[in-house]
Amino acid sequence: xxxxxxxxxxxxxxxxxxxxxxxxxxxxxxLEYLSAEAYVARSHGLASPVMSGPARGMxxxxxxxxxxxxxxxxxxxxDLLARQAAFDRTAWLQALPLDPPIAENERVISxxxxxxxxxxxxxxxxxxxxxxxxxxxAPGRPQAAVAAAAQALHMPSEGQGQLHISPLPYLSQxxxxxxxxxxxxxxxxxxxxxxxxxxxxxxxxxHIYPQDDLAHHTKLQAFEAALHMPQDLQQFHAVWxxxxxxxxxxxxxxxxxxWRLWSQQTRLALQCQTDLSSQLLSFVxxxx
Length: 288
What we know:
four-stranded mixed β-sheet; 288 residues; 41% helix
């Protein structure tokens, strides 16, 4: 190939590296993890000479996604904003195969998580809220985590009080975007769904991938600082991700509206950056 992209620092097989040096060497990109930490801007675009092995003498280039103009940016399709503007929230929610269907007065929250220790607190809070809530739970680990949390609370699997829990089927990436656009609050996990939640412009909470050495704590705090996250939303993230104990901040209507305004301002700022794919194409063209 003219270009080889090695993702997340996973070493290419030696046999493949040997083929890379037989003809015109390709542009070799090491596409790294998404982070808001300071080293990302320092390392983005730097050369990494290969000093040993079958590809010795070649150069690979660090390419870091990020949230600031001195990084590689975020994935964003050219037609994303137009598709979102044409989206019919009410029709999409009514078309979901749910029993019972979502009522007009229900607040709608999506849940795509690992196993947050604060999940029982969230279910309890929503069941006692002054507004009915429909919790749409992604399949796999999220549904298993909700079942365990409900059991710990002696709560029926479908919820109780003001909370109604609905399991979702697996969704395509397009449908997952539409889910995020349709919900009043999105609780997402990992990196890709975080970016999709940012583009959705709705209030969101991020369950960052937990690491044994607690490196995810630093990563989360860097993200909060880079995007000037409101203090009460930082508090939500601290409890949701196990950095702190205690109750989650109440998900009041006023608080969610404040978070929505911040999300939309953040989306507007991030839209000013060139998207990751376009930056990657430009970077490769320079190196060729």
